[in-house]
Amino acid sequence: MDLLKKYLGILWMLLGIVAGYYLIVSQAIPQFKSDNPEDLVPAIVYTFVLMPIISGGLLIFGWFAWKGEYDDEGL
Questions:
Q1: How far is CA 43 from the centre of its chain?
Q2: How far apart (Å, rounded) are the C-alpha atoms in residues 17 and 48?
Q3: Model pLDDT for residues 9-36, shown as the tens digit of each residue
């Protein structure tokens, strides 16, 4: 079970990278390039609020899972 947690940690870290890439490339950049001023607020929210929370959270959770912080031995 601990080995599965370590492999899932790698999966969470990869998911964090993909989520960050998706939020920046697919969501924020097109709205920054838009001529509509109403698109600026969602672009800023995607870039400076959602992306760090989602990507950072997944990366930290994955890192701790990969390093064995959630193993049964430590409880």
A1: 16
A2: 15
A3: 999 999 999 999 999 999 999 999 999 9
